[in-house]
């Protein structure tokens, strides 16, 4: 007769269960329903991402009307090519990729690939890194309201070269990961990191010069 086993023995001898696979992103189910003709599913995708796409387009083009048109175009083109989406990446990444392409196309059509900077004496080319980084003295928050600071930041971001501005928008404003940004822009991860660093450095330099000039002018 076999010796009785304890509950602890039974638990130790119980076969291990396989770890559950990662659950698919909720967007996948909505996309599949939309492919099957469920218009409400695609409308749900629009509601989830239309503001993000609009903000992305607005930061790149710096034009509200263009951003509104681009937002509509993005979802129209995404719907037209819905059958091509295989679920290998987030649906939002696909939308952002279309939005970036459409926004840059608008810039080329308007022949404004080079945006006028707030600081005309700062001339940087693609890949250039500012040499000198002045400190902000006095503290900008002591001299400007939050609304004024937001407007200054918006204008300064608009002065970045389009390539840097696009990466900065996706990573630091829309909070996409480095990998998602790389996929959306068709760049390598190191290239995204390099452009983001240079965008941040140029932004810091431009803001430093702006606040330094403001401080000198108020004396």
Indicate the structural class: mainly alpha
What is the annotated CATH architecture of the largest domain? Orthogonal Bundle
The coarse silhouette is: elongated
Major sheet attributes: none
Proportion of residues in helical segments? 55-70%
Write structural notes for this entry.
This protein is an all-alpha fold. It folds into two domains: 26-110, RNA polymerase sigma factor, region 2, helix turn helix motif (Rna Polymerase Sigma Factor, Chain: A, Orthogonal Bundle), CATH 1.10.1740.10; 140-217, Orthogonal Bundle (Arc Repressor Mutant, subunit A), CATH 1.10.10.10. It is built from ten helices and no strands. It has helices spanning 7-13, 26-35, 39-61, 64-80, 91-110, 140-143, 146-158, 162-173, 178-185, 189-217. Helix 4 packs across helix 5 (91-110) and helix 5 (91-110) crosses helix 9.
Compile the SSE list and pairings.
Blueprint lengths: L6 H7 L12 H10 L3 H23 L2 H17 L10 H20 L29 H4 L2 H13 L3 H12 L4 H8 L3 H29 L2
Helix pairs in contact: 2-3, 3-4, 3-5, 4-5, 5-9, 8-10, 9-10
Features:
219 residues; mainly alpha; Rna Polymerase Sigma Factor, Chain: A; Arc Repressor Mutant, subunit A
């Amino acid at each position: 007769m076999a010796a009785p086993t304890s509950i602890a023995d039974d638990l130790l001898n119980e076969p291990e269960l396989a770890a559950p696979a990662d659950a698919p992103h909720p967007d996948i189910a909505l996309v599949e329903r939309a492919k099957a003709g469920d218009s409400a599913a695609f409308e749900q995708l629009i509601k989830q991402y239309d503001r993000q796409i609009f903000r992305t387009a607005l930061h790149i083009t710096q034009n509200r009307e263009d951003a509104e048109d681009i937002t509509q175009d993005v979802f129209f083109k995404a719907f037209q090519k819905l059958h091509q989406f295989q679920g290998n990446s987030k649906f939002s990444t696909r939308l952002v990729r279309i939005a970036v392409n459409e926004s840059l196309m608008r810039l080329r059509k308007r022949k404004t690939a080079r945006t006028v900077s707030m600081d005309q004496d700062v001339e940087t080319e693609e890949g250039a890194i500012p040499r000198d980084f002045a400190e902000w003295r006095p503290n900008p928050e002591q001299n400007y309201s939050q609304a004024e600071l937001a407007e200054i930041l918006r204008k300064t971001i608009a002065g970045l070269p389009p390539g840097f501005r696009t990466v900065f928008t996706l990573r630091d404003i829309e909070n996409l990961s480095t990998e998602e940004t790389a996929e959306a822009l068709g760049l390598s991860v190191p290239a995204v990191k390099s452009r983001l660093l240079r965008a941040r450095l140029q932004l810091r330099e431009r803001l430093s010069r702006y606040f330094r000039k403001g401080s000198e002018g108020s004396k």
